[in-house]
Design a protein that fits this description.
Helix content: under 10%
Shape: globular
Number of strands: 30
Radius of gyration: 23 Å
Largest sheet: 26 strands, parallel
Structural class: mainly beta
Length: 477
């Protein structure tokens, strides 16, 4: 919406600044003390809609996000700590920060910034709104001309050549009930990151009850610490298109429902068809705790793997816990992914604890053929295929256990305090837990904080004060 030019512009420089954001406005503009400003100012209307193409700070308060809202033209959207942004119920919202612009959502431990459903307590559900999309100029493994377009129906490009690109700050932020789909296979995740660079700060973020992935990284180099994925329908952490950043301290806890796709703790592809395009997708991850549904009674059959590494991806996963997932724990799929882990040592899986329902280690038939010999060509008899896969799984298990990984018989053997308590989980290890020791940071750089413990937590719960496991019933005024 074009800026309104009126006689108010002659009053003060403060009013001038508050009037310089291009946004559409609700018809209901507050009045009364402090409420008589320009209708184009979201601090007056309490509504974000349309396009923000000049910088603005949202003062602490409660706002409505109406429809797809784009931040572009180099604008910086700053949100004060303690602010709550609810989606419009009818015109579901999404916040898209385009290349060259920034989102500064820098909350505090006692004043997190909350993006959530506009529905009342007890009525909120996954998919009540879109989510947050941040697009940067960091490298991907997609062709750069034309630039790739981010999924979710927003038709905006991402990626570039600046590995240190800065798209802002998200710190002490909660994102709840996101995940609308523009079309099948093109959803908005809780937090979508397209080509986001290492100059961006991501710390202390919780995505809860998302109808799609909690976090998806499309290329880029951004690093992050202290991430929570809670009750996600699809993958908790999804990596594609050459993402090469570093992550430390994260936890995911799955509820029994899931969507119609395979739902995993990690899903990681080099690209959608498994090419060897560079840079390779290769996240470096330490001190994560991945927790599946407690049991299969009533849980959706699409709950999958703790880790699903596939389609030529590479990876580093160390000092982490894989607990309770339904289909398998550490899963390798495709010829290149399996060979790069088992034979070429391009990928690393060390000093982890695996305690899942079934198949702590898994290899698909393509991966199995890459690390075994003596089996007939395809199509092979099913008995031979089963034998080949079982041999490959045994080889992967032996390699993993020789490199500091512990395979436990039951989830309870990890001895966390109360990890499957969905309403009030406690992820800290007990005094006798094998997770209290065994970490190693050999080969990792200074981004990673050295710990003796494995998993996301030692003796301190870094979620205290800002995270919430009861967003369905929280009172957001």
């Amino acid at each position: 919406m074009k800026l309104i030019k009126s006689a108010l512009m002659i009053f003060t420089s403060a009013l001038l600044l508050s009037a310089c954001v291009k946004v559409d406005i609700s018809d209901d503009v507050p009045t009364g003390p402090g409420g008589g400003g320009d209708e184009d100012d979201p601090n007056v209307s309490k509504v974000l809609t349309g396009t923000i193409d000049e910088s603005i700070t949202l003062k602490k308060g409660v706002f409505t996000l109406r429809g797809y809202v784009y931040v572009n033209n180099g604008a910086i959207l700053t949100i004060e700590p303690g602010t709550v942004i609810k989606s419009d119920v009818t015109e579901k919202g999404a916040l898209i920060v385009e290349r060259g612009s920034k989102l500064i959502a820098d909350g505090k431990v006692d004043q997190p910034i909350i993006f959530t459903s506009g529905k009342a307590s007890g009525e909120r559900a996954p998919g009540d709104w879109g989510g947050i999309i941040i697009l940067g100029r960091a490298p991907t493994n997609r062709p750069s001309s034309p630039a790739p377009i981010i999924e979710g129906g927003v038709n905006r490009p991402y990626g570039g050549s600046d590995a240190n690109d800065n798209s802002g700050i998200l710190r002490f932020v909660r994102i709840e009930f996101s995940g609308i789909a523009a079309e099948p296979g093109s959803e908005i995740n809780g937090l979508t990151l397209g080509g986001v660079g290492a100059g961006t700060v991501l710390e202390n973020i919780q995505v809860s009850f998302g109808a799609d992935d909690a976090y998806e990284f499309f290329g880029g180099t951004v690093n992050a610490k202290n991430l929570i994925a809670f009750g996600t329908y699809d993958d908790d952490f999804d990596f594609d298109f050459g993402y090469s950043g570093k992550l430390q301290f994260g936890v995911s806890l799955r509820d029994k429902p899931s969507d119609t796709d395979q739902a995993n703790g990690i899903e990681c592809d080099n690209d959608g068809t498994g090419t060897t395009a560079t840079p390779f997708t290769k996240p470096q991850i330490s001190n994560f705790t991945f927790i599946g549904p407690y049991d299969t009674t009533g849980s959706n059959a699409n709950h999958g793997f703790s880790n699903r590494w596939r389609r030529s991806t590479r990876f580093v996963l160390v000092n982490s816990l894989l607990l309770g997932h339904r289909r398998a724990g550490f899963s390798l799929e495709s010829t290149n992914t399996t060979a790069d882990y088992y034979t070429n040592n391009e990928s690393i899986f060390k000093n982890n604890i695996v305690a899942v329902y079934t198949r702590p280690y898994n290899v698909d038939s393509a991966g199995a053929r890459a690390i075994t010999t003596g089996y007939p060509a395809n199509p092979m008899p099913s008995a031979d295929r089963t034998a080949m896969i079982n041999e490959a799984i045994a080889k992967v298990k032996a390699k993993a256990e020789a490199e500091g990984n512990n395979t436990l018989a039951a989830r309870e053997d990890a001895q966390l305090t109360d990890p499957f308590n969905f309403g009030a989980p406690n992820f800290l290890p007990t005094a006798g837990s094998p997770a209290t020791t065994g970490a190693s940071f050999a080969g990792l750089d200074g981004f990673f904080t050295n710990t003796t413990y494995r998993g996301a937590f030692g003796t301190t719960d870094w979620t205290t004060g800002w995270a919430s496991y009861t967003p369905k019933t929280n009172n957001y005024q």
